[in-house]
Amino acid sequence: MKKKKLLKQLIVNFQHSLPAEVYPRTLVLPTDSGKIITMPD
Asked: Is residue 37 within 8 Å of 29, Cβ to Cβ?
């Protein structure tokens, strides 16, 4: 089990070291789809 945690931590650390640009997005709910949408509080 410790190997799994170690591997996950190594992956997270590697991903944080990558120079990636983050583009902010706006969340738009589809209000015309005819489906019921529930939103968490």
From this structure: yes
Q: Alpha helix (H) ranges present in the chain?
A: 2-17
pLDDT for 33: 83
The answer on pLDDT for 7 being more than 80 is yes
User: Cα–Cα distance between 8 and 11 in angstroms, integer?
Assistant: 5
Q: Three-class SS of residue 11?
A: helix
CA–CA separation, 18 vs 9, rounded Å?
Answer: 15
**What pLDDT sits at residue 38?**
82
CA 27 to chain centroid, in Å, comes to 14
Alpha carbon distance 22, 36 (integer Å): 31
